Structures are given as structure tokens and as C-alpha cells.
Automatic annotation (TrEMBL):
Belongs to the sulfatase family. The gene is LOC118411641. This is Arylsulfatase B-like. PROSITE patterns: SULFATASE_1, SULFATASE_2. InterPro entries: Alkaline_phosphatase_core_sf, ARSB, Sulfatase_CS, Sulfatase_N. The keyword Glycoprotein applies.
């Protein structure tokens, strides 16, 4: 882990602007440079001009990825191992965690979030503007209608017809955007921030798009670009993706038009793999699984400040690395934060030096376990229960235990989905793969390398001993938006 205080990779008087774009549920095979099915010319160009991160990992679901981005720490450190944060439960990223925008503000940055928060809102202290952001424009929960910005109110008996509003400008509901497509709104707001920004002050713009999360919705002009695709669902998914790509292009153009691009570092990442609407081909699995399709992410960095550009990096990187890396870029310090799991990987990205990271804890979720209580003894290891859903990467080796989730392979084509079902999974609770040689996770070699299995189980056990208990509170009826003007927001 990294704790450092180093100068930014620029002139001390000109700290770079940092733009972090986070796509939602974006699949490995859904970006143009991995596949020709969906058109993403702006993302392709930015990636081609910068560094493509082809051995980059995120978490399998939304909130844990965002939490690790904001803290540089694994979710076992603060009880978020189990699921995403829910709008009807009183939980959020613990207030004791130091966030990235808080540290950047200490380095003189203006900090803005435009888009999806999803790190808690049951009390005002959990809102973005209380966690280090100067401004917030977007929505608090996990997903909603792209046009009406409403979500089903699950507290009432008829959630399908009773929907609550979740779209905010700071602490005020932004009703004026009802009917406006969120991707367009977020791009417009980002461009406004760029155009009004004091160029003498560094800016951190965090843009977590709603796209391409369900429900899949896009203006017809984008969907019609894919009339040749037989599946209506896939046509819409492709349209959502192309609208996001266009937005990224417009934002990049604004940075150039306002003289900021030459001193900007732009980072693009997904928060997890695609659901079944998209494709992680040729990787195995989907969102909410610990297979590569759930945890290996599309990512790249594009910037004139990169020392070695137009290349592909296979260095092992993780979403928790962005915290110390961005702080380094900003010329700040991580002293005073809690111990980090992330590493400063700027030299790895910018210059191509070896990654300081050699392992990743993908997760340990003790609330998801198989029923076989004797599973921990299957491989002669008594300190970690292999019925628990967990996964770890050490070097080229990856170990999975318990039930990692749907392990099928899925390719999207013009004519529809091509699925390859996984076999030999029933009753199995442990897998070992050499990811460098077998990135598609097709050949389990746990029986061939028992010593590697034991070594990785020992590491899982060590991590598990440091984990705080999962915090998963009951639904709070006071969260009912009907009690709060039909608004999703703080209720305590």
C-alpha cells in the first residue's frame, strides 16, 4: 500500500486538471477497440492517444467500486462486502473514511461531481457536498429512469406505479430537468463547469454517468444507428453507449476550447462488468460475479502529460489505486488518511515502469456461502471456509471460493446473443486459474497446484482476519419518499 507525499508530474505552479469519467455496468466487449459492434469513436480516439489499461480491475458491483475509488481502501475495511447501498436502508460510506475530494481540496482543487453518487444519503452528512465536493449535480441512488429521473418507491404496495424523484442540484431537487436525457444533462452541466472554471485553479471533475445502467433508455436517434441489430434490447444498449461516447467527445472538446486540455489528465473506467444486456466476451461471467467478466474493467488514461503515449499496458492495476495516484498527480499527500490498499501507479501508467501491485483482494462476502459447513476442509485448509464467496489474485494466479456467480460466456452479435454455458460447476466450491495464460477462466488447475491453492487460501484467511463485520441494516420505513415530498434523500 502507498502513503506518500510527492510532487505532481507537472510544473509546481500548474497543477493539472483531473477528469475522472466512470461508466456504469460497461462491458469489456462493448467499447470499440475491443469489438466492432458498438460505435465509440471518441473513447477509441482518447484511448489510442493515451494508455489502454488491459490488466485493470474493479469491483463486481457499483457501490464497492465507488467506495474504493473514493477511499483507496478495500471494502472489507468498512463493512461494504455484501451488496450495493440501498435507498431504503440507513447505510453509506462510513464518515470516518477520508475521501479523495477531501484530500484534493487540501491541494487547492475545485471539486465537482456530476452524475451518480450511490455512496449513501440517509443523513445529510453522507451527501457528496459533505464528503469533499464543492458542487453536486445528479442522483443519489443506484439507478432510475433516464428521462423522468424517478425510481420505483419500493416501500409502498404498488412500486411499479408510484415513483419517487431523485435528481439534485446541490441540496435542492432539480425538477426543471424532468424529461431531459440524463447523459445529455450531465454532459451539458460538465461543460458549464468547464466554461466557468477559473483557469488558475486546478479542477477535479468526477463524472459518474448513469449510462449504461438499466433501465436501458436512449433517444431514438441513437437507437436508430443500430437498426441492423436484430435484438431491440441490444439496439437500445448500443444507443445508450453511443450517446455516452458522444458526451465524452463534447466534454473533451470543451476542455480544448477553453485552453485546459494540455494540462488535463482524463481517466476513464467502468465500475464493474456488464450485466446480461451487454457483453464481457471473451471473459467469463457478468456483473455481480467474481469471474473476470465481473471484475476486469475497461479503462484508459488520456493526457498530454503522459510521458509515453499511444500504448497498451498490461500492468496489474486496481480501482483502489486511483486514490494515491490522483493525489500524486495533484501534488498532494496521503499522510493523514487511513492505511491504503491502493498504490501510486502514475509512473506505471505514464512511463511504463513495472506496477508496484502484485495482488488484489477481489472480495470476501461472508453473507453469501454454500450450505456445506465442512467446505473449509476440502483442501485440507481449516482457517478459511471455502464455501464463502471470495476471490483473490496473486501474481498470475486467481483463486475463487464459494459461489462466484453466473460463470457463462456471452457474446453479443448483430443477430443476437451467443451463450456458452459453464459446466462442471455444481457442487464445486474452489477454482484456481492462471489468468495470464487463461484469461477466459476455462481450465481449473486447483488439483494440479495444491501448494498454490494453500498459499492463496492463507492470504484470504489473513485478509479475512482484518475485515470488519458486514454492515447490512434492515429496511427503514422512514425512508419512504412519500413521507418526504416524493423525494429520494436524507430521512434521518
Amino acid at each position: 500500500m502507498e502513503t506518500s507525499s510527492t510532487q505532481c508530474p507537472c510544473e509546481k505552479a500548474r497543477k493539472p486538471h483531473i477528469v475522472f469519467i466512470l461508466a456504469d455496468d460497461y462491458g469489456w466487449n462493448d467499447i470499440g477497440y475491443h469489438s466492432s459492434l458498438i460505435q465509440t469513436p471518441n473513447l477509441d480516439r482518447l484511448a489510442q492517444e493515451g494508455v489502454k489499461l488491459e490488466n485493470y480491475y474493479i469491483q463486481p458491483i457499483c457501490s464497492p467500486s465507488r467506495a474504493q475509488l473514493m477511499t483507496g481502501r478495500y471494502q472489507i475495511r468498512y463493512g461494504m462486502q455484501h451488496s450495493v447501498l440501498m435507498s431504503d436502508r440507513p447505510h453509506g460510506l462510513p464518515l470516518g473514511e477520508v475521501t479523495l475530494p477531501q484530500v484534493l481540496k487540501e491541494s487547492g482543487y475545485a471539486t465537482h461531481i456530476v452524475g451518480k453518487w450511490h455512496l449513501g444519503h440517509f443523513k445529510k452528512e453522507y451527501l457528496p457536498t459533505w464528503r469533499g465536493f464543492d458542487t453536486f449535480f445528479g442522483f443519489l441512488g443506484g439507478g432510475e429512469d433516464y428521462f423522468t429521473h424517478r425510481i420505483p418507491n419500493e416501500i409502498v404496495e404498488t412500486p411499479e406505479t408510484y415513483r419517487a424523484f431523485d435528481f439534485w442540484d446541490g441540496s435542492k431537487p432539480c425538477l426543471s430537468e424532468n424529461g431531459s436525457y440524463s447523459t445529455h444533462v450531465f454532459a451539458r452541466k460538465s461543460i458549464e463547469l468547464i466554461s466557468r472554471h477559473d483557469k488558475d485553479k486546478p479542477m477535479f471533475l468526477y463524472l459518474p454517468f448513469q449510462a449504461v445502467h438499466a433501465p436501458l433508455e436512449a433517444p431514438e436517434e441513437y437507437i436508430n444507428k443500430y437498426a441492423h441489430i436484430r435484438s431491440k434490447n441490444m439496439r437500445t444498449y448500443a444507443g445508450v453507449t453511443t450517446a455516452m461516447d458522444e458526451a465524452v467527445g463534447n466534454i473533451t472538446r470543451a476542455l480544448k476550447d477553453h485552453g485546459m486540455w494540455e494540462n488535463t489528465v482524463l481517466i476513464f473506467s467502468t465500475d464493474n462488468g456488464a450485466s446480461k444486456a451487454g457483453s464481457n466476451w471473451p471473459l467469463r461471467g457478468f456483473k455481480n460475479t467474481l469471474w473476470e467478466g465481473g471484475v476486469r474493467g475497461v479503462g484508459f488514461v488520456s493526457s498530454p502529460l503522459l510521458k509515453v503515449k499511444q500504448r497498451i499496458s498490461d500492468a496489474l492495476l486496481h480501482i483502489s489505486d486511483w486514490f494515491p495516484t490522483i493525489v500524486r498527480i495533484a501534488g498532494g499527500s496521503t499522510f493523514g488518511t487511513k492505511p491504503l490498499d491502493g498504490y501510486d501507479v502514475w509512473d506505471t501508467i505514464s512511463e511504463g515502469t513495472p506496477s508496484p501491485r502484485t495482488e488484489i483482494l477481489h472480495n470476501i462476502d461472508p453473507l453469501i456461502a454454500a450450505t456445506n459447513s465442512d467446505a473449509s476442509k476440502i483442501h485440507g485448509h481449516s482457517t478459511f471456509n471455502t464455501s464463502v464467496k471470495a476471490a483473490i489474485r496473486v501474481g498470475d494466479w486467481k483463486l475463487l471460493t464459494g459461489n462466484p456467480g453466473n460463470g457463462d460466456w456471452q457474446l453479443q452479435t448483430f443477430d443476437g446473443k451467443i451463450k456458452e454455458k459453464s459446466t462442471g460447476v455444481r457442487g464445486k466450491q474452489l477454482w484456481l486459474f492462471n489468468i495470464r495464460n487463461d484469461p477466459q477462466e476455462r481450465k481449473d488447475v486447483s488439483d494440479e497446484y495444491p501448494e498454490v491453492v494453500q498459499r492463496l487460501l492463507t492470504k484470504l484467511s489473513a485478509y479475512n482476519q482484518t475485515a470488519v463485520p458486514v454492515y447490512w441494516p434492515d429496511i427503514d420505513p422512514r425512508s419512504n419518499p412519500a413521507l418526504h415530498g416524493d423525494l429520494v434523500g436524507p430521512w434521518m
